[in-house]
Amino acid sequence: MTNLTNCTKGHIIGRGSTATVSIATTVTGDRFAVKSTKLSKSLLLQKEQHFLSKLRSPYIIEYIGFNVDYANDIPLYDLFMEYATGGAVTDVIKRQGGSLDECLIRSYTHQILQGLDYLHSNKLVHCDIKCSNILVCEDGVKIGDLGCAKLVENCGDTSSGFSGTLVFMAPEVARGVKQEFAADVWALGCTVIEMATGCNPWPEMNNPVSALYRIGYSGDVPLFPMWLSDEGKDFLKNCLQRKDEERWTVKELLQHPFVNINSSSEKIESFDSPSSILDHGFWDCFEVTDTPSSTKFMTFSGESPVDRIKKLVETTPCVNYCMTNWIAEEDWITVRSNHVDENSNITYEDSQTDVEKEDDDSESTRSDSESLSELYVEVGFSDSVRIIVESNVLETSDANVVNSKFLGFKNINNDSCLLVDSNLNVALLIIAILAFAYVLIFK
Is this structure's pTM higher than 0.85? Predict the structure, then answer.
């Protein structure tokens, strides 16, 4: 326990309507805050001491003790509390240029809700939630200034009158009807607006009487900041319902996605994000099996492209199985680009390609070959790919006509080509296709 008699009061760091706040230092160098007022006017401060002394939460400013001191023979009532090194949230808003970013607002709001949940579970209504009463400590923000707090007996009427800051009051409080837990929820919505804009929720109202009437009877609600996310606006909508019974409770708000960091985070298996189609079994996507099998994820981070291709060829268990679905005839003859849009699924089509007349040398060269015997890959920008599974060359007096049947694939882009002999075995054919994919990706 801190020895409160052997401490030195320092400079004043804040002033309220009834008290001043100073920094006090002990002989051991520890610092804490001292809230002081004249003993004759210390009723609210003594009530705050009564509540704080019974509370202990990481989201409520910590109580240290109290003392009666004298200054110029005038008795002072001192309340000793944890020192908030970051000041109040209003100070943070000023340091941030007049408003807080949404990420910080979400974090602060979540912690304020945790503090309100603790107070409400102890049947306490804070009655004056606003940025100047939210203190920034080394381990997070905490609710302070419980001078207006009220005890609610059995969740019924409050045991005393109404109090708080007018522009943060709920409509039922402004009308003088009641001040219960829902009033803190309304004030929290106003506090979120204050964090987002740097202003109170009713900045256009200067006359207290007209403000009291508008809040209590007009049916208006504070304007939501336009730049706030949809989740933030929905959070405010649930806080700022004019009918207190329609407002969300603190426990419900703690589950709202605006403040609940776990609401959109599903527990999933961790693995590296794929950097290309070579990762995560791209080639086995053409076959759907009825019996589920275990998936083997491979980490390629830090490996060269050559090593990645080699590992994929050596370790992928279903390559041979999948490749059988690609063979339409005994051998693959030609793969080339096509400027006609293809279906996403594998489709067969017959086409005739007219080959224009060429000079004598090129024509004699072509007539030496009656059919194509290579695997030929040629892909143009934004083109689909077709695999020729049957090709016949018909010679006429004017030109050669190639009649071909194709296997079509869509959305493979580049202008590169690959030539492979059709007599290669299946393993080399796999390597050829993977090498072609490498050219498409890394060129």
Answer: no
